[in-house]
Each structure stands twice: as structure tokens, then as C-alpha cells.
Amino acid sequence: MDRLSLYLTLATGPVTVGGLVITVMAFGYYTWPAIGGAAAVGALAAWPLAYLISRRVKRKDPNFDHTQEGGLIPDPSKPEV
């Protein structure tokens, strides 16, 4: 887990939920279970998508060394992983 993905979740969440809800409504499903299901799937997919975006951004950075990644919870006293 890295801090950049946590911040990107705030951006990917609304985009993912909104896109899925719009897709469900475009197919003609206007019921609450369909809209709620699309919103739930979008909310659950927000962090994994943010993590993938974070990894891609960091791999494109020539000064970032992804072999030095820490554990599951980053050490707050260290720089960004």
C-alpha cells in the first residue's frame, strides 16, 4: 500500500461510480438495486484502480526505485514509497 494510491482513491472513486451508474442507466435499468449495485461495484473497485494508477505513475518516474517498497503499512517517517 502506498500513500499516493490513497489520494488517488478520492479521484477514482467518483469517476468509477459515476461511470458505472451512467452505464447502467444507459442500458435502461432505472431501479434502485441496479443503481445501488453499480455504485457498490464502483466503490469496491476504486482502490484497486487507484493502486494500479499509482504503480504506473511511479514506474514512469526515472528517479523512483520500486525495489525499495516497504510492507503493507508505510512508515510515516520515511519518504513516499
UniProtKB/TrEMBL annotation:
Region (Disordered): 62-81
Domain of life of the native organism: Bacteria
Residues spanning the membrane: 7-28, 34-53
Keywords noted in UniProt: Membrane, Transmembrane, Transmembrane helix
Name of the protein this chain belongs to: Uncharacterized protein
